[in-house]
Amino acid sequence: MNYKLDFTPVIDGLPSLLLGCLGTFLLAICGMLLAIVIGIGGVALRDSALKPLRWLVIAFVELIRNTPFLVQIFFIYFALPLTGIRLDPTPTAIIALGINGGAYAIEIIRGGVQSIPKGQMEAGLALGLHKAQVFRLIILKPALRAIYPSLTSQFVLLTLTTSIASAISAYELTSVSQRIESESFRSFEVYFTVTLFYFVISWVMMRLFAAFSARYFKYPVK
């Protein structure tokens, strides 16, 4: 085998790769925030007294969970202009990530909500709280504490899913690496380095989630 390793293009492109990592972080964080909003809102609508709203949420979850993310992001990127809405690749990627993550978040959060004893809900109503107050003050935080590991695992997966946004030229790590590879033809060196970057990004995200859990979801100790 005469192939000789040459990481010079990777070293030269390191500033661009680091900016790509930042782009990946921003896509992931914005997508997660949107996913949480969709997840909490979807859970509230999923248990609504109105059947059409419940069926709408169920259909949304099943549609997103049973179609590839690549198809979803292509649909949003190419379908929105038909309605007169034109978005740059990065906002499109954030919306697609939020919708995809939100569908999974709905089921995860709903499982946590259902794990809360009904007695706690009834006690809140007996105290004169409205249903929205009971959900926000009594149900939501214990439910999030219960499903936090599952939710954060899903968000780490969502972080890695940002790589698919390169298909619409959103600025993130994979799109930067593809440009460097196309210019240098050093596929192994480029993607080996990118693999390490994604590993570090995932590890950092997990440490951030662990720190957040210790700060906000830790049970009080006497």
Automatic annotation (TrEMBL):
**Where does it live in the cell?**
Cell inner membrane; Cell membrane
Tell me the membrane topology, using the record's own terms. Answer: Multi-pass membrane protein
Which taxonomic lineage does the organism of this UniProt entry have?
Bacteria, Pseudomonadati, Pseudomonadota, Alphaproteobacteria, Hyphomicrobiales
Q: What is this protein called?
A: Glutamate/aspartate import permease protein GltK
For this protein, the record's InterPro entries field holds: AA_ABC_transptr_permease_3TM, ArtM/GltK/GlnP/TcyL/YhdX-like, MetI-like, MetI-like_sf
Subunit: The complex is composed of two ATP-binding proteins (GltL), two transmembrane proteins (GltJ and GltK) and a solute-binding protein (GltI).
Q: Which UniProt keywords apply?
A: Amino-acid transport, Cell membrane, Membrane, Transmembrane, Transmembrane helix, Transport
State the source organism's domain of life: Bacteria
Can you list the GO cellular component terms from the UniProt entry?
ATP-binding cassette (ABC) transporter complex
State whether keyword Iron-sulfur applies: no
Q: What task does this protein carry out?
A: Part of the ABC transporter complex GltIJKL involved in glutamate and aspartate uptake. Probably responsible for the translocation of the substrate across the membrane.
Which SUPFAM superfamilies does the annotation name? MetI-like
Q: Which species is this record about?
A: Rhizobium redzepovicii
Homology family: Belongs to the binding-protein-dependent transport system permease family. HisMQ subfamily.
Example GO molecular function? transmembrane transporter activity
NCBIfam families (alphabetical): HEQRo_perm_3TM (TIGR01726)
Q: Which GO terms describe its biological process?
A: amino acid transport
Q: Name one Pfam family in it.
A: BPD_transp_1
> In what residue span(s) does the ABC transmembrane type-1 domain sit?
21-209
Annotated transmembrane regions: 17-43, 55-80, 92-113, 146-170, 190-212
